[in-house]
Amino acid sequence: TWANLGLQDSASPLMEQLIFFHDHALLILVMITVLVGYLMFMLFFNKYVNRFLLHGQLIEMIWTILPAIILLFIAFPSLRLLYLLDEINEPSVTLKSIGHQWYWSYEYSDFNNIEFDSYMIPTNELTTDGFRLLDVDNRIVLPMNSQIRILVTAADVIHSWTIPALGVKVDGTPGRLNQTNFF
Known about the structure:
single chain; alpha+beta; Helix Hairpins; Immunoglobulin-like; 2 domains; 5-stranded mixed beta sheet; two-stranded antiparallel ribbon
């Protein structure tokens, strides 16, 4: 819906993990921002100077090691998620997607001679319940609850093939074949 502050609902387990990581990292950043804001606010009204706070190896070690530990709390879940996103399981269907300047071409590699082009529907031909700049004349049909492999490339310029609810975004580059998967 419009004016939502959160991410849209997930349609795959990996997107749920991405949303959890987003919330985890955001909580850490909010805590850091509140702490630094409180310390800066208190410095404006503090008249006293602590000479041990200005010069001391202990405090310098603390404000060097503490941010490193906080970064580890962000880095380890991020690395785990990156490896999960890149893991390729045994796919039940493989779809090849070729980006052209104004349309996409699709080929179901597991079946013989199933390929089609998908053009965007012009705004003046949309129905009342259609989505402007999103609806196409030929949609992809994929099975539910199956491992799907997507091979993405482009014929002319760089394109981006994405389904936000599944947590999938792949760039189609001419002369390069990129691969991703989703469930």
